[in-house]
Design brief:
mainly beta, Jelly Rolls, 2 domains, five-stranded antiparallel β-sheet, four-stranded antiparallel β-sheet, 16 strands
Amino acid sequence: MGTYSSATRQGAYEPFDLQVARGQVDGHSVVEIYGYSTTVGSTAQGPLWEGLTLSGGLYAYPSSAAALVLVSDSASDNTTRSVVIEGLDANYAPITETIALNGTSNVTTTKSFLRINIMYMLNSTNTGNITASISSTVYAKINAGIGQTQMSIYTVPAGYSFYLTYVQYDASIGFTSSNYMITQEYNKINSGTYNGQTTLTHQATFVQKQETPFGYPSLHLEKTDIQFEVKANAGSPFTVSMFGGGILIKNPD
């Protein structure tokens, strides 16, 4: 199919979003991004993920595509338990690999990943902390008992456009506190006319909750690295979670 249309397919009375979620509209799919951290500080903006420290700072991506080394710190995460990795290859094309764990022994993927968008347990919840590394640098982690990564990070695949429709943050700062959270969205485009360009958008402050339902979806071009970042104005550590949602649409051939 050369052109991917956002017209409804299954009747005039079924909501478009429901049709997308059911896989009934060609070239359209739902994207859900979850982030969580208990170590949000006031030094620098940083995305919510398991590797965040009180110093904050950008998430650093692999410099090139490489195989991932997965390991748990619990022997209970043995070969009966598997992890699904969804990410992008050297050309930013979507790739997925399912790999069986081997407890506290390393296991290596057969595919090479340039980006990791999510990892999750396939057939059970993990007992230990599971890390995915390249040359001892951790790029993704599933905390014990959680079952999936919680990274406020997403990279748009090549040949697709991502339309962000909703963002929400929740923080452990009460209304009686003098502290507040500062959020922003960091984008870096890795292709085309705007290759290398970075932008900061959707900057806002909040206390307990911030919700941003977009009146019109926010376009993100192919190969764009997106990081939803947060820091406190003072004090630490704080706990913050976020959710971002939208639709990924395949570009015309």
